[in-house]
Amino acid sequence: MATTKISTGTVHKIPADLRTALAADAKARAVWEDSTPLARNEWICWVTSAKKDETRKRRIMIGRSKLTSGMRRPCCWVGCAHR
């Protein structure tokens, strides 16, 4: 079975659960791949900074939806402190 190549961020590696969500959605994946490494880094940090598993899952669902609609960065978030 072939794996789908999903680019990572500048600092953070893409976690498996986010990779799986993006691999399952061609539109979200296309926006992800067209985004800058810094923008991808912010999505990754936004997802991984969740303290609860339920929050992380919700952020993955929201992120996938926002990417599908063309949004390139998480809205209303201060940004990744690891830039």
Write up this protein.
The protein has a domain of 53 residues. Helices cover 54% and strands 0% of the residues. It is mainly α and 83 residues long. Helix 2 packs across helix 4 and helix 3 packs antiparallel against helix 4.
Kindly list the characteristics that best describe this protein.
4 helices; mainly alpha; 83 residues
Q: Tell me the span between the first and last alpha carbons.
A: 35 Å
Main sheet: strands, sense, barrel: none
Q: Whole-number radius of gyration?
A: 12 Å
Question: What is the H-and-E element order?
Answer: HHHH
Number of contiguous helices: 4
Query: Proportion of β residues?
Result: under 5%
Residue stretches low in confidence (pLDDT < 50, at least 5 long) are none
Number of strands: 0
Amount of helix: 40-55%
Coarse shape: globular
Structure classification: mainly alpha
> Averaged pLDDT, please?
90
Q: Characterize the quaternary organization of these chains.
A: single chain
What's this, in brief?
The chain is mainly alpha-helical. Helices cover 54% and strands 0% of the residues.
List the helices and strands and how they pair.
Layout: H1 16-23, H2 26-34, H3 37-48, H4 53-68
Helix pairs in contact: 1-4, 2-4, 3-4
